Every structure is written in structure tokens, then in C-alpha cells.
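Re: the pair you flagged

First of the two:
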Amino acid sequence: MSNILGCKLSFIVGWSSVFLCNIVDCNKSYARTTSFYKKSATTPTNSDNTKSSIHDELFLGKINSYLNQYGIHFGSNWISETSAVVSGGRKKGINYAHQMTFALDVDWEKLSGFKGFSTHAVALNFTGRSTSYDYIGDSVIQSQEVYIPHQALIRMYVFYAEQKLWNKKLDIKLGRVSTGNEFAASPFACDFISLATCGHPRAVAQQGFPSWPGAVWGMRILYNISPKSYVQLGGFESAPWPQGGRNGWDWDAKYTTGAYIPIEFSYNPDFGRNRLTGYYRIGGGFDTSRFNTWSSHITNSGKTDNRTQFWVMIDQMVYRNDDQKDHGIYILANWGHDSPTTSIIKDSYNIGFINRGFWKKKPDQQFGVMLTYYKVPKGLNRAQQFQKSQGMNNNIVEFPFLNRAPGVQSSAIMLEANYSIPIYKSFTVVPVFQYFHHVAATKNVYPDAAVIALKTNVIF
């Protein structure tokens, strides 16, 4: 995993903890460990901050303390997000959604002497409904990042092998991999529960760039240039959602439309005597698939185009609260871009901050604020304008326009503020406030929506 922590932090999977850390911590208030899972990210392979502590696990800690000596690690967690519209939007209402995660990591070097080799598997369970669809009226940004359509009792997520070579300078992953776990991921993005932030800049999270919970056949090669920097290159199958089918086990190539090829450079410095940690990512990707342009949806011209994406991500500590690795005030800034002829979002921007460890008596509590702005492509806007002028619709009452939109789209702003409170070593509660300005990037369709939410995370 190379990126920077995404659902919660990042780290290149080390071995047995890679997934648990990622999973488990992905939504834990982030204390002590960097997490990746689910729209997440990673730190360099030579980072020493890749393991989730077995002492943070409610039931599996003692089991894993024994199994870890043989290179085996089990992980499981439960994340719930309850979100309610209190004013504006389509109407007032409340919905619940949850995700359960089950992970198995095997370090074959410990188990059988196969140096640097490990395998990783993650399965997911989802249930619930979308507050954005039902009550906010937003077809673009989910209020609850754990909600997905096409729910299944058990969905296979990732299943891959990892080989580390040259004293861990080279890291290779091969198998059923999620592009979003490897590229364009911030260590702090999923400290927020909205899909405006969690995971990646929204502009890049489209077909060729499948993020949680989608996985495809792929390979990622990461080379650690130095202890603080790396470059990585990938090659992934490009296929429409839901990749792997409803249950994640449909692994043949019948839905493949092309290949997605991303590249990314990362720099993770510690500035000054206070070691102000930074996570910097710059990258891009190209999808060889051909997508219908927005104009062709109206004219039936059959015109198609490829997709090219770019991203820049900055997470920089500006003040340190204590000596724990990521306890301090971080400024967060992200930008993502996708080809305007075919993309749902042309440009997306995030800017915000988190303050972790500011209360000495409660060092794992955290406060965060994030502002997101995004624009849809002009081609999509013009196609929707044409639909409106001609009285055309797609026969969906609530979302009658292209892109499943409730109206003609242009741009939108979304604000989230939250406070993460660890109740117990394995249980975290996060009260959340969200505000949607220009719901679904439309004007005068629905009033701005105010949302309150509660997220809980239990690490088993």
C-alpha cells in the first residue's frame, strides 16, 4: 500500500498488520497507528508505523499475540454511520448504514521461510440506506462513506500477494487489488465520513480508478528512493462498477474495457527539531477504455474518449502537540482532475485541518474540519441544459437528468466538522456535522441541507 493513509492513514502493508491496521484503524480515531483501509492510503514500505496494536483489539488481541509469531494475523471491525437531515434537502429524515470487515494476513517468511512474501485478503459486509439519495437529494456525494449499493451478505474485497525485495526497497503486489488503496490516498481523508473527502479527491475516483470496495486484477510496483520518498507504478484492469460482481467473486475478464496505468511520487518529510510530519503525493493515471462523451449521450453520435487523471495531495503538520507520531495540527489540501469530456466531476478540491492529541488528559481525541468544492464538466452541464430545453429525462422521477442528477449541474460546496472520541481502547464515537451547499451541484432544486451524523467504530 503505498499512499498515505487514506481511510485513515497510510502505510504500505507490512505484512500481517497491513490489513488489520488498515481495516481496523481505518475508522478508529487514528490513535497511534496509521491506517489505510477503505479508501485509504499508505506510508512507505520502510515505515515503522504500519502495525495496529494488538492491545487495541477487543477480542482478537490475545489470539493475534500468539498467531503473530507464526506470521498470521486476523482482523475485524464494525463501522456504523447514522446520518440525519435536520433542514433543507429533499426532506427531513434519517438513515443507518454499516460496514463489517474481516481480514487475514499471512507473513510467509515467518510461517515457511519464504523471505519477504506475504498474502492478504479482506471481505466486507454492508447494509443500510443512503441519506444522500433518500433525504438530501444528492446523487454525487454520499453523506455516509460506508454506504454502497449492490449490497451483499459477504463481498470479497482484495486478495493479493506481496513480495518485498532488496532489503524492502522494492515492494510488489499482484492479484485482486484496489487501485484506490495504492494511489491518491491521504492518511487523514477518512477521518471524515463524507465521500467528498474520504478516500480520494472525488474527481479521480471513477471507473479506471476503483476504490473501496471495488477491486480488480492488477499489479503495483513501489520503489523506496529513500527512507522518506518513493515512486510507484501500477497496471490495473478497467471495468465498470461493481467490479467483481455483486459478491466480489466474479473474477473473469468479461466486463474488462481496458487498462488503467497510474504513477505516483511520494515525499514524507519530518521538518525541524519538532519533526513536523508531512505527506505529499503527486500523480496521474491514464485509462485506455473508451467512454461515451457527454455530448454523445444526447446526439447518439457514438463519440468516445479516454480518461486522464491527475492529483496533488498535501498533509502537513504545522504544530506538534506531543511526541506521538501524528499528534498535532495538520493542514490538509487535495486536488483531483479528470478528463472533462467523460467524467462526472472535472475538478475537486479539499482544504481543512485536523487537531489530534491537543488534550493531554485525552490524547487520542481529535477535532477536524474539511471544506470541499467540486465542478462538473461543461459538457455535462450543456447536455443537461439541452435535456431541460427539450423536455427530455431518463425516467427517474427524483433524478431525471444525465448523471442521475435532480437538475442541471455546475458546482457545489460541502462542509464537514467532526470530533472523534475514543470511549474504550477498541471503541470510538464520532459526532459529525455536514452542510451541503448547492445540493448535487444544482441550484434552486433543493435548499442547502444541514446534516448531523454519528459514526461508531469497534475493533474486534
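Second of the two:
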Amino acid sequence: MSDPEASIIILTRNGESTLRECLEHVYAQNYTNFEVIVIDSASTDRTLEIVSAFPVKLFNINVKDFGHGKTRNFGARLAKGKYLIYLTQDAIPLNDKWLENLIRNFKDKDVAGVYSRNIPRPDCDPFEARYISTGWGPTREVKSIRDYKNYKKLVFFSNTSSCLRKDVWDKFPFDDSLVQTEDQAWSKEVLEAGYKIVYDPDSIVIHSHNNSLEVLFKKYFDAGTAHMKIFKNRNNVYLPLIPFFVVAVIFLDLRFMLGHAYKPIEIVKWVPEAFVRHFVEAIGFWLGLHFDRLPLSLKRKFTASGRY
């Protein structure tokens, strides 16, 4: 039997609430020339039971061995396909064209990676819904280093649902040292090497989180840490300006809610939470940018990772 053309790599950890639906939609694709590799980090719920109902290749690792870049690199080394598809356990392909709409972009030999559109779940809070709706829009983008003037937007890439050309990954694997945003670091590297990145909004997954304040703080701390490591600067992010940033983002929230038929009583309910939420996000990100100046005890307390 010949090797599959594509390898779908899913990292799991206690994913019972979404994993069955995720795998059902994967195996319902029009494009069928693929294998599925599941790498589980010591799940204690029904994840492994769910996985056993599907024809996947299962690999188990210890929690302490997990890393967003490290484990995805492990999956790539296991893969037999020439295309590496990364899908998170809580991202649900919207329809049966999700996969073919990713792979079709590689007709252009200069394309190194493609990522999908995200749309929020019905129960998504308005802040996350706005972020997703504005960050993953309806317009296809082909990004290359020629668009240097918009560099931060240029390198954006998301392994929530993505596809990489494996021969490019061979030359540019993910950075094992990053706590998160390994996808954007990879995108930056391949763009600087002359490749293209494509955002294809016709490949769609349903994906969003309603995170607690603690989870948000740690997420943004790790994002700030990764930003500093990738871009090596913390310019224009000043502590005294954070209140102004928070107010500006709340105006974006209000505009989004008014434009999406939220009831006045719902808006009144959400606004106080918006102040707290965006302040926590901003402080977390700022502290992450200054991770190299923090004592080890605080870094261990602030991060969602076990890296320190």
C-alpha cells in the first residue's frame, strides 16, 4: 500500500468533550488520502477510549515531555504524508471540504503553509467572538516577505488548523524552546526564507474558548514571553499606557456587540467584565515581555507551561 498523501496530527490531553466530534468530522472529509496520528499526553478521562473507536495511529507521551513545538515535531517525524495537517482536539471541521481546501493551495510550489478560518462556537463570549471574527476574516490572503511593512500581521499563523509542506518542515522544524506561538515563529522563519503563507477562509473549523481570568493571564504571559523571543523587542508596550489600551479594546467590544444584535441588558452585563478581562490580558502580556527580568519563582507561577 502506498503512503498517504497527508498526515493529520492531533495532540490530545483530556479532550473527551470535543474529540469524538473532531474525529467524526475528520473522517467525513471528501479528501480521503490521509492518515491520522494522535499523540496523547497521559489523558485521565475518556480520551483514549474515544480514540480507540477510530483507525488512528496512537502514540503516548508523558505530560512533562509535552511542548507545543516539540510534540508537533515528534508528530511530523512519525508522519508518512508529504503534507502535515495540524488540528487541535477542540477544533471541529465545519464541513467535508475542510481538508481539500487546505491542500489545494500547494499547487503553488512557493507556499510553505496554509491555515484555516476559525469561527466561534455558539456559546462563545463576545470578547473571544470579536477576536476570532476580526482575526479570521472572510478574505483569502497570500503573504510573502514583500509585505514587510505589516510584519506582525504578516507572520500570523495558527496551528489550530494548519497544513505544512513536509519538505519545508524538514528544513524549518518548529522551535522546541517556545512555550507557545511556535506556529508564528515558524511562519516568520519560512517567510524570511522566501516562501509564502496562505490564509484560506474556505477551510473552516469551529473553535473558541471561554477562559477563566487565571487561564487568560497565563495565556497572555506566555504569549508575551514568546513575542519577546521571536521579535526580540518590547517597544511601544509601556505600563502606563495599559489603561488606555483597555479602554480602546472595550470600544471595539461595544462596537462588535452593537453590530451583532446583543441586547442592551447583555451589553451592560458584559462591560464590567471587559474591563477586568482586558486589564488581566494586558498585564499578563506586559509581564511576559519582561520575563527575563522576573525571578524564577514568579515565572513558574505565571506560566501555563512546565518549562521553568
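The two ends are 45 Å apart (CA to CA).

-B.
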